[in-house]
Amino acid sequence: MATDMSERPPLVVAEALLRAAAGDHVDGGMLLAPLIEEGRASTYALAGMLAEAASHIARRDQRPGAMFGIQIDHVVTGEPGRPEDLPPDVAFAAQFTTAWANRDQDTAMALFNVLADGATGSEAGSDALIDGLLALFELAVITTRVVIAEQRNNPNQQKG
Fold first, then answer.
1. 24 burial via Cβ count (<10 Å: 0-12, 13-18, 19+)
2. Which of 20, 92, 105, 152 is the most exposed place for a label (fewest CB within 10 A)?
3. Could you give the angle at the alpha carbon of 110 between the alpha carbons of 160 and 42, nearest 5°?
4. Terminal C-alpha separation, the chain
């Protein structure tokens, strides 16, 4: 029996994350290229799936009613920073994941639209979109590695 087309993107993203978590970032990332090439809606869905994966542990451990924020500290001085202090791709990934984890779809969509609008008709904009998605992918890979390690260390723990 064939897999429904709507089921394929999550399976592709899961496989990409598992490959990257195992150390094969290039092949893992390349699995995502067709989802980006399908267009804006598919790319937004990809960003959402990556943010869902990246925020998994935080959402799993979230206290009822708690909201997420971004804490940025200067690596040398320890002084508080702002998202604007981060490289643009990292700032996008952090802000998008935070909005997604807070279930703030309006903010997530607005952040994505700014990035995607810049990609239209511009090589530099396309690079910024890819860089933002790759930063989001890296956040999701880090979370995937932590979840795998938790499951290996606690094999009887309920998966979640």
1. middle
2. 152
3. 60
4. 28
